[in-house]
Amino acid sequence: MNTLFAIILVFVGCCSNVVFLELLVRDFPGCGNIVTFAQFAFIALEGFIFEANFGRKKPHIPLSNYVIMVTMFFTVSVINNYALNFNIAMPLHMIFRSGSLIANMILGIIILKKRYSMSKYLSIVLVSVGIFICTIMSAKQVNVEKGATEEDGVYAFMHWLLGIAMLTFALLMSARMGIFQETLYKKYGKHSKEALFYNHCLPLPGFLLLSTDIYKHAVLFSQSSPVEIPVIGQSMPVMWFYLLMNVITQYVCIRGVFILTTECASLTVTLVVTLRKFLSLIISILYFRNPFTIWHWVGTAVVFLGTLLYTEVWSSVRAAVKGEKADKKAE
């Protein structure tokens, strides 16, 4: 029952979160910092009350280790959201972030000296090819759509290229953080909810560096047209409503993933998250009419095929089917 509930939370929370994020970004492409700050502040407040018991509960993992993890987590979150300022379409943003498998494997080989099976290497090649196809097609669209003159087109392309570089850096940094987190869990035990709280609480002072941009967008949000909130019947600026819903759905999404990690095997978690990403991508394309060519579809299919191959879903399904057949014969 808990597993089904968690899966529902992941799909409803994460897919809704993508919708509200795109609604925010469409009107204010540079609002990534205020979105990140709101998400961090909400999760930190919830964790301070229910996990840290108003600061009375001592952490299982030393704070010095959390400081290192938090520095990486804060950097990844800010850069991922800020990259949307550089002509990065939401579908490409989601596809690119699906390349975390590549980054994890590369750093796993370099840092942890891991070795993988041929199917794992094949899956990474598929994911890389899929992301490459989508990125190249998006680059062509930037050249065509941005600017009437050749000089404007070159500037738009370089601007977009900087966004791609930021996403690449965030991808590698996220993989490095995952490896660091894995080593901490092996040493001190798995404390996911504690890590969730400290990852969102400790970076809050860092937002002082972004306070000017956050304040500017807070003013812009307050000037947006009012909308009446269902049920309570009160009105508020529509952008603040979108931000509130984005924060709530982000929390629902994270809670769903947390429950899944405690209830299910990592394979199940990866499969659910992968399917959720695919559904979010479809919603973004159809609902917001984002430009998506046949080559984008090909690239997307290759990315998800590689992801499913990496998680060994096919072999697990075959094993389950064989197990059922064996049980029937025994009967």
Word description of this protein:
The structure is a single chain. The protein is an all-alpha fold and 331 residues long. It has helices at 2-27, 32-50, 63-82, 90-97, 100-111, 118-145, 150-188, 192-201, 211-222, 238-263, 266-288, 294-310, 313-330; strands spanning 226-228, 235-237. A two-stranded antiparallel ribbon has the order 1-2. Helix 6 (118-145) packs antiparallel against helix 7 and helix 11 (266-288) runs antiparallel to helix 12. The chain is globular and about 60 Å long. The mean pLDDT is 81. GO terms for molecular function: UDP-N-acetylglucosamine transmembrane transporter activity; UDP-xylose transmembrane transporter activity. It comes from Culter alburnus (Topmouth culter).
What share of the residues does DSSP label as strand, in percent?
Answer: under 5%
* Distinct helical segment count: 13
Radius of gyration: 21 Å
Described by strand count, sense and barrel closure, the largest sheet is:
2 strands, antiparallel
Query: What's the SSE pattern?
Result: HHHHHHHHHEEHHHH
The tally of strands reads 2
The helix-and-strand class reads: mainly alpha
In order across it, which strands form the biggest sheet? 1-2
Average pLDDT figure: 81
Q: Helical residue percent? A: over 70%
Rough outline: globular
Which spans of ≥5 residues are poorly predicted at pLDDT below 50? Answer: none
Cα(first) to Cα(last) distance is 28 Å
Family: Belongs to the nucleotide-sugar transporter family. SLC35B subfamily.
GO molecular function, one term: UDP-N-acetylglucosamine transmembrane transporter activity
InterPro entries: SCL35B1-4/HUT1 (IPR013657)
Subcellular location: Endomembrane system
